[in-house]
Design a protein that fits this description.
With 238 residues, the protein is α+β, with helices and mostly antiparallel strands. The protein has helices spanning 3-17, 38-46, 66-71, 90-100, 111-136, 148-169, 182-196, 205-215, 218-237, and strands at residues 27-31, 52-55, 79-82, 85-88. The chain has a 4-stranded mixed beta sheet, covered by helices on one side. Helix 2 links the parallel strand 1 (27-31) and strand 2. Helix 2 (38-46) runs antiparallel to helix 7, helix 5 (111-136) packs antiparallel against helix 6 and helix 5 (111-136) packs parallel to helix 7 (182-196). It is globular and about 55 Å long. The relative contact order is 0.13. Bound molecules: glutathione. The site of glutathione has 10 residues, from loops.
């Protein structure tokens, strides 16, 4: 078994006891403003983890640099590097953070509820995110001339169908479960990205209330301040 495998086994054993783990490790998060890399930024902050952030300027193509492609050939963020070992994909990253910092209760402790939370994480990344990507870059999915409007219209329809499902799940609740979990952080990104496209999301009252609640969490405030500072740095370098 590799050293990382042994440590993961230790983490899992400790996680079962739900006690804080004091294993020193170096955590690096590759991040870009506005992107879904804000999800691990929020959950690592909620976990009170010590981590370094390496912002990538996507406008300058830094996510496609030779050095970054060595770490993540998929040229995407988030990417977590734990003691030199890269881990991509938000779902896996969230589960690693939850396992490593069990005291933060980033996933529900009941095994069935935990799976339901993983199901929500997976839905955010594979059921909602792709429609946001289409809105971000219609030509990235269809290069037929004059198709942009139709890509946007269909993506918005699918997105709204998903927001409605989330709105129903959040009816009468503060969070998806009885306390804040990683699923709230991921859905927060999904909803925020829609708002940043200037979509009228006022019809999703429960999602909007969840969004406001999330914005008031200290971890999210910290993220928003950090995002602004990175954007200011990138603007200076433009
Ligand atoms: N399936 C990945 C999706 C990550 C993703 O698509 N990230 C976007 C930003 S939100 C990205 O890095 N795009 C840059 C690119 O595709 O070149 C996950 O859940 O982590």
């Amino acid at each position: 078994m590799t050293a990382e495998g042994i440590r993961l086994k230790m983490i899992q054993a400790v996680a079962r006891e739900r006690t804080p783990l004091e294993v020193p490790m170096e955590i690096v998060l590759y991040y870009a403003p506005i992107t879904c890399a804000l999800v691990p930024y929020i959950t690592l902050t909620e976990a009170n983890a010590t981590f370094d952030v390496r912002p990538l300027n996507m406008r300058k193509g830094q996510h496609r640099s030779a050095d970054y492609l060595k770490l993540n050939p998929k040229h995407k963020v988030p990417l977590l590097i734990v003691d030199g070992q890269p881990l991509s994909e938000n779902d896996a990253i969230q589960q690693w953070i939850a396992l490593t910092f069990p005291h933060a209760q980033l996933l529900p402790s009941d095994p069935w509820q935990e799976l339901k939370a993983i199901s929500l994480l997976s839905w955010c990344s594979s059921g909602i995110h792709p429609y946001l990507s289409r809105l971000n870059s219609p030509p990235g999915v269809c290069d037929v001339p004059n198709s942009e409007q139709s890509v946007r219209r269909l993506a918005t329809e699918h997105l709204f169908e998903n927001y409605k499902i989330a709105d129903d799940l959040l009816a009468g609740r503060e969070y998806f479960f009885d306390h804040f979990t990683a699923a709230d952080a991921h859905f927060f990104w999904c909803f925020r990205r829609g708002l940043l496209f200037d979509l009228d999301l006022s019809g999703f009252a429960n999602c909007s209330a969840h969004f406001e609640r999330m914005q008031n969490r200290p971890s999210v405030q910290k993220l928003l301040t950090f995002e602004k500072s990175v954007q200011a740095e990138f603007a200076k370098a433009a």
